[in-house]
Structure formats: C-alpha cells, structure tokens
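B., you asked whether I could sanity-check this one before it goes into the benchmark set. Here's the sequence:
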Amino acid sequence: TFSLPVYADEVVFADTPDALVASWRHANAQSRPVLMLGEGSNVLFLADFAGTVIANRIKGIEIAEDDGGWHLHVGAGENWHHLVEYTLQQGVPGLENLALIPGCVGSAPIQNIGAYGAEFKQFCAYVDVLDLTLNQVTRLSAEQCQFGYRESIFKHEYRQGFAIIAVGLHLTKSWVPLLG
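And here's what the prediction gave me:
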C-alpha cells in the first residue's frame, strides 16, 4: 500500500484453495521462503523479498437468513470494508463498527480485528483453515480460534503451513447499535 520500489522473487495471486496449495508446494519444492498475504496492508517491505508471496484472493459472499439472523460464508480474499458495505446494502446490520479496517476477510480472525467496542469474535461462527501440506480443510468454531485481544490461534498453531480460506459470520436480527 506504500508503493515502495521493492520486489519479491515471485508473487502469486491464488483465487482457489487448490491454487494456494499448488503455489505453496511449488515454492517449498524450490526451497524458497513463502509469505502468505491478504492485501498486504499490514506489511511494509523495506528490502526485496527473496521468496514467494502468495496473495489469497478467494472470493465469494453467501448469505442465508433464518428467524434469528443472517449466516454469512465469506471467501478469505474479500476486502473487509467492502464486506461491511455489502452487508449494509443487503439490509444486514451488525458490522458497522468494524468499517474502514483495511485488509482482507481472511486476515480478520488472525488479529481478531476490532474497533469502537466491537471485535471480530463477536460475529464469528467459524473459520475454514486449509492445511497446505495435506490439502485438507478444517472448520474451527469461534471457541476453537482462541480469540483474545488482537490474538488468535492463527498466530500460533496455525501460523505456518496453513491458510484461512473462508469465514462464517452470524449477524443477529436483534442487533442494537453499539454507540461509543
């Protein structure tokens, strides 16, 4: 986002789980370092990166409604702020306090993003995690994600060799605005 004149040996934009796995395996076969990114808005390269940057671009937003609220399944490569705007356009309230946070949806659970008294964990139903070695997806419940203040399991056990490919959110119809 700073447009500095630095480069990576290779940059791959992966728009499917299979593309993530293939890119990761290719880089590992060549003994190259790998850096998984969403939009890279939280990363500042000051020097060239002698490795492969894999940018997660898995898209898609699905919304299902029941009597209690809305259930969203969102691809990790969706832009977070655009998701907030999209939910509002669809008449689905709840994420307003998390507007304007930069980055992708898949980055939200890693940091347990938050603003103005709201945090990602309040809306999280699950996170789909891809094991890049086994090409196997595991769905973690919000509880299994071990959310804390700007903290989650994705900074620890699921830091290397894994990629978040989707998140599930639950937005309740009994929503009340959280005013600071």
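One thing to flag: The two ends are 29 Å apart (CA to CA). Otherwise nothing jumped out at me.
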